[in-house]
Specification:
Blueprint (H helix, E strand, L loop, with lengths): L1 H21 L9 H20 L2 H11 L10 H25 L6 H18 L8 H11 L8 H29 L13 H24 L5 H12 L4 H26 L5 H18 L4 H17 L8 H26 L2 H14 L2 H4 L4
Length: 367
C-alpha cells in the first residue's frame, strides 16, 4: 500500500514537472525589441567581418548586449539607465581582462565583481537580466587570452559596442514612444539587508567558487561553468532555482545539438555574423515566454560569441562535449548555492556573522 502511494506521488511530481516545462508564459513583447537587440549585437559582427577582424567584432558584440537593459520608461529615464549600465558593462569587462594578467587573482576579481554589481542592481531594483550580463562580461574577459598591451584595445572595442547599443536604443525609443506611452517610473522599494547585501555576497562567493573549481579541473573555458552557475543561482526562490537548473540543462543539451550542426557547416565570417543575429532575435523573442526553449538558442550563440574567431582549432564533437559537462557542473554548483541562499537556517547563521563584520553606519537604517 505504501509502495503504491509513493508511486502515485512520484507520478504526480513528474507530471507537475512536465507541465512546468511545457508551459508558455504570456508576453506582450513585440518584434521591434528583439530586432533592435539583435541589431545591437549583430552590427559589430558585420563590421568585423567586413574588415577581416572577427575577433574585434565579437568583443564589440558583447558590449551590444547592454541594449537588453533598456527599460520601458520615459526617454530621459531609459537613456540615463542604459548609459549607466554601459559604464557598468565596460568596468566589469575591464576588471575581468585585467585579472587575466594574474591568473591567481581571477577568482577573487570575479567574486568581487559579482558581489558589487549584484548589490547595485538589487539596491536600484533593476529588472531582469539584472547583474547577469555584467558578470558574464567579466567572466569572458577573464578567460580571454592577451597581454597588458591588449587591455586598452579590448576595453575600447567593448566600449564602442556599448555606445552603438545606446545609439540604437535611442532610435528605437523614438519610434516606440510614438506608438505607445511609456511605462511609469516605478518607485524604488526600501532596500533590505537580506536582499541587497546577504544575497549578493552568497551569489558572489558561489560564482567565484565555480570559477575556482573550473580552474582546478583545468577546463578550457572556465567561463562557461561560471555563466551556468550564475543563471541558476539567480532564481528568486528555491523552486525557481530548481526550474532554472532543469530548464538550462535540458535547453543546453538541445542547444548543443544545434551548435554541433552549425559547427559542421562551412561557416565564414559573414555567415557566422548572420547566424548570430538570427539567434539573438529568436532568444529575445522566446526568453520571456519559455526559458528552456530560449536556452536552445542561447547555447550556440554563447559558443559562437567566444569561439567564432578560433573555429576549426578543436573538433566539433570535443567542443560540444566539453560545453555540456561545463554546463552540468555549473548548474550543480548553482543549485547548491541556491539551496544555501534560500535556507532559513543558513541565512540566519551567516547573516548574523556578516552583520558583525559590516559597520552599522555603512549598512544604514533601511538595511
Amino acid at each position: 500500500m505504501a509502495g503504491a502511494q509513493r508511486w502515485t506521488e512520484l507520478k504526480r511530481l513528474i507530471h507537475a514537472e512536465i507541465i512546468r516545462l511545457t508551459t508558455f508564459n504570456a508576453s506582450d513583447r513585440r518584434w521591434p525589441m528583439p530586432f533592435a537587440a539583435a541589431l545591437s549585437s549583430g552590427l559589430p559582427l558585420l563590421v568585423g567581418a567586413y574588415f577581416g577582424h572577427m575577433d574585434y567584432g565579437l568583443i564589440s558584440s558583447l558590449g551590444g548586449l547592454v541594449f537588453l537593459y533598456l527599460p520601458e520608461t520615459p526617454m530621459h529615464h531609459r537613456m540615463v539607465t542604459l548609459m549607466a549600465c554601459a559604464f557598468a558593462m565596460i568596468a566589469s569587462y575591464a576588471l575581468g581582462v585585467i585579472s587575466h594578467l594574474y591568473p591567481p587573482a581571477m577568482t577573487l576579481a570575479l567574486a568581487f565583481t559579482a558581489i558589487l554589481v549584484t548589490m547595485v542592481c538589487r539596491y536600484y531594483n533593476m529588472a531582469p537580466p539584472g547583474s547577469f550580463f555584467f558578470i558574464m562580461a567579466a567572466a569572458i574577459g577573464a578567460n580571454a587570452p592577451g597581454d597588458l598591451m591588449a587591455v586598452p584595445l579590448k576595453v575600447g572595442l567593448l566600449a564602442m559596442g556599448c555606445l552603438l547599443a545606446c545609439l540604437i536604443a535611442f532610435c528605437y525609443s523614438l519610434v516606440v514612444l510614438r506608438q505607445q506611452p511609456p511605462a511609469p517610473i516605478a518607485p524604488r522599494p526600501a532596500p533590505t539587508f537580506d536582499f541587497v547585501i546577504f544575497d549578493a555576497i552568497v551569489i558572489g562567493v558561489f560564482v567565484g567558487l565555480s570559477l575556482a573549481i573550473a580552474q582546478l579541473l583545468r577546463l578550457d573555458q572556465a567561463y562557461w561553468v561560471t555563466i551556468s552557475c550564475l543563471a541558476v543561482i539567480q532564481g528568486m526562490s528555491l523552486r525557481a532555482v530548481w526550474d532554472k537548473q532543469l530548464q538550462r540543462i535540458l535547453g543546453t543539451g538541445a542547444g548543443l545539438l544545434l551548435a554541433w550542426g552549425l559547427l559542421l557547416l562551412p561557416l565564414d565570417a559573414w555567415s557566422i555574423a548572420l547566424v548570430m543575429i538570427v539567434l539573438a532575435f529568436l532568444i529575445e523573442t522566446l526568453i520571456v515566454r519559455h526559458y528552456a526553449l530560449a536556452a536552445i538558442f542561447i547555447t550556440p550563440l554563447t559558443i559562437l560569441l567566444v569561439e567564432a574567431a578560433t573555429l576549426g582549432q578543436m573538433p566539433a564533437a570535443t567542443l560540444i562535449a566539453a560545453r555540456f559537462w561545463d554546463t552540468v557542473l555549473g548548474c550543480l554548483i548553482g543549485l547548491l548555492g541556491g539551496i544555501c541562499l534560500h535556507s532559513p537556517r543558513f541565512r540566519a547563521v551567516l547573516g548574523r556573522q556578516i552583520r558583525r563584520l559590516i559597520p552599522s553606519r555603512l549598512v544604514g537604517q533601511a538595511l
